[in-house]
Amino acid sequence: QVQLVESGGGLVQPGGSLRLSCVVSGFTLDYRGVGWIRQAPGKGREGISCITESDGHTVYADSVKGRFTISRDNAKNTVYLQMNDLKPEDPAVYYCALDSRSQDSCVYAGMEAWGKGTLVNVSS
Length: 124
Known about the structure:
This protein is mostly beta strands. The chain is 0% helix and 47% strand. It is globular.
């Protein structure tokens, strides 16, 4: 059974940085895309970044482009999200997710395996 566990969230000041980790167990990340999705209080879910395995292709939402960087270490079955220049609009629960049925998918709506999330707060 696939399990995803996020870590690395916390409270930072505006302009600060955090690095989120997503460790996947019970499932190999070979040929699987992995995404990060966030949900702010009172708002819907927003897919913010995804990385494929076959060519390391990355995608970013406009809201985080240039500030966040996604990467992966298949040997550790782990995906990372480096978040720099955090802004007051970034606080949310951040989830990692994947589509276990499709190869290298970065379609957020198809991602059926989710972690429980890690909370990110930005405040001075």
